[in-house]
Each structure stands twice: as structure tokens, then as C-alpha cells.
Write a structure and sequence with these properties.
Elements lengths: L10 E8 L4 E9 L5 E5 L8 E9 L6 E10 L2 E6 L3 E7 L5 E8 L5 E9 L4 E9 L11 H11 L9 E4 L2 E4 L1
Antiparallel strand pairs: 1-2, 3-8, 4-7, 4-9, 5-6, 5-8, 9-10, 11-12
Amino acid sequence: MSYGAAGTAAGTYEVDLASTTASVLQSAAGVNVTGSYAYAFVPSSPLAAGSYRATASDFQFPAPLSSLAFAVAQNHAVLKQSSAAGSVSFTAAAGRVVLLAAAAPAAGVNGLFDINVQNSSSAVAFDQIQTVSPVSGFISSDHPWNLWKLQRHLDGPEDTRGVLHVGAGGFERG
């Protein structure tokens, strides 16, 4: 159950429950308004202290998003943010980060974006594909298999990337 309420724009909030010695729970959520959607992601593994790059990409499928902005936060402070798809470099302390994203689909259509974090050696520390859907019947979080298949396609060999077949059974590499 969520107790956040939207104002005039979409937003995010975070809840932290900690004992005097450890974090017990960290959860983040988006609060949406019509036409604008907010997302918050808490990677399951904490980051080691160091330099990282966060990237948000609009897949432009089935249509480009009207807007995509994102931020990286840690310890209740925004470390870096971008008002458009792209990458930002940030320095993290040891511990969890929260990735925040705001996206708006084109009127009446769906979209997909990816948000990820890589360390200075380009190893992926976190990667999430997210639907932006005002229209029912698109890929939903109730069917993570479809997103898993899309992610596997995108992680495939270089010569197969960009070849995506969409059918009633979901996505298949071509």
C-alpha cells in the first residue's frame, strides 16, 4: 500500500527503516499523475565506494517517449541528474543508491526505457527495463518474462543486436 499522493507533477519518495547498526528496509516508489510517470529503483546490491556512470536510454519502441529525465541519489541527496536521456558520471559512497526516473509517453502510446549503472570498468552494477504505458495491454510487470526476453536480446552477440521480432508470444531474437 502506498501513501504518497501526487501534486501537479509526478514525483518519488523513499522509505528507510534502520536499526542503530544496520539498514533493515529501503524502498522507493513513484507517484504518478496523468500523462507523466515517476519511477524509483533501489538496486538489490549496495555499491562499493567509487566512480560510476548511470545511463537512461529511450528504446523508442513502439514510439519515442515525450520526455525522459533521471537522477542518482544516495543518503537522501541527489548526486547527479539529467533532464534528458543520456549518461551522468557520479561518485558513490559505499552503500545503496536510488535511481529516479520521470518519463512521459507520446499521447496514447507506450514506450520503453532502460536505466543502468556501470562501474569505472564498465561492469554493470544494475540494469532495469521499464515500461511507460498509459494504454492497457502493453508489456506489464505481471509478465516479467517478456522483459527478460527483451533484455536477453539486448545483451546478445553484437551481430544480433537491433534485430527484434515482436509477436503474440513476446520478443524473440532474429
